[in-house]
Amino acid sequence: MRIAQHCRVSVYPLSTGRNWGYGSAMPAQDNCVIVDLGGLDRILHFDAELGVVTVEPGVTQGMLASFLDEGGHDFLVPVTGAGPSCSLLGNALERGYGVTPIADHFAAVTDIEAVLADGSLYRSALHEAGNPDLARLFKWGIGPYLNGLFTQSGFGIVTQMTILLARRPSCVKVCLFSLKEDSLLEPAVARIRRLLSTLPGTLGAINLMNRHRVLAMSIPYPEQQLGSDGLIPEKVIESLGRQYQIYPWTGFATLYGSDRMINAAKLEVRDALRGVASRVLFLSPGQARGLAKATRWLPGSRGRRLATTAATLAKSLDLVAGRPNETALPLAYWRNPTPFSAQQRNPSRDGCGLIWYAPLVPMRPVGVRSFVEMVKTVAPRHKMEPLITLTTLSDKLFDSTVPLIFNRQDKAALHDAKACYQDLLEQGSALGSYPYRLGVDAMQSYAARHPLSGALSSRLRQAVDEHDIVSPARYR
Q1: 426 touches 374 (CB < 8 A)
Q2: Does domain 2-164 have CATH number 3.30.465.10?
């Protein structure tokens, strides 16, 4: 950094460069030197008694899982659907989230060490005062809270991060349920909101996925059944739904705790979903793996479909149990003309076309319906399939993830995807929904939308990075 400062060269740091759908390893602006931190892959400190770990940028979900397993440490990895090869630190700095008990990954971050643009070192006040143990245990420290400046920004290069881990509970159960009719979405949202406020700490995040999205995760892209507009006709979606027993909406909730807690919580969930949800089923990860093994022996095409669904389900349950895997990554390959061939999926390497639109959606039934209808209108307008997931961040807010999947080798498709993202951004904002994170292509319009907060950020940036050395154009 001292060399970059002396030569006035802008740098763009990456943890592992696997920020799929948000730019991967691309900087937000041209003429930057990439600083690849993937080689910094040490677990620097671990408190086995309290479950606190300090990692470097290159430590991945898979590395932490192996470390915990090998040491017999009973803690959950803060997993995401991005896969075991992705950085823990990078996801937390982007304020990513998951479905394990600590869903908000930056909420679990307690301490940070960073190198500033001039090469000087930042440490939190508690750490610097000679209390690194307290700094690792208490998020807010003392004095102005500065750690947050290093998230979704370019205030410095974070070289260490301390994360609180959730202890692995004695029992993990997933509740699967379906909505037979699309019209049941609004009452389901109200019931989910009630459940989250009733079972805090026991009930993890809840996912609602539309049929389109579940099919994209379950079956090959039906290229031979497209309509004249290049999209999958609704009648085909309905037919595939009948074949694979996928209703208009599929729900996925996770319960964590002791056996007695889970048994009581199951009664609450059944009661709350009664009259709205169908096929309410509770499974443990072990039961799901057993089901996947059993369905392999079923004959015929129906048996093969059930086996595929059961295998995906088993991997999904391992994910919510804090074991990273690639079960969500095939989605990125859905419209990729070349299927993955290497042992480990890498959507960037394999040329997958994927852009994430990830807005926050208030948990009001009427507003959620307006958002869903907006996506179902805007996406097809740009030749994109409307794939929708709603994930609870609290009992007041959903985060929606809408993957824009396209053939990246087709320049027209790339243009359509970018236009679709901008249209969704505008229309969603008009409805009161706005992204919680942005891809590199969306950074250019960021400053114009946030003049007051942007002005303060610029003043602070000027003080610590006068020559705009670190991550120019990132969130400003």
Answers
A1: no
A2: yes
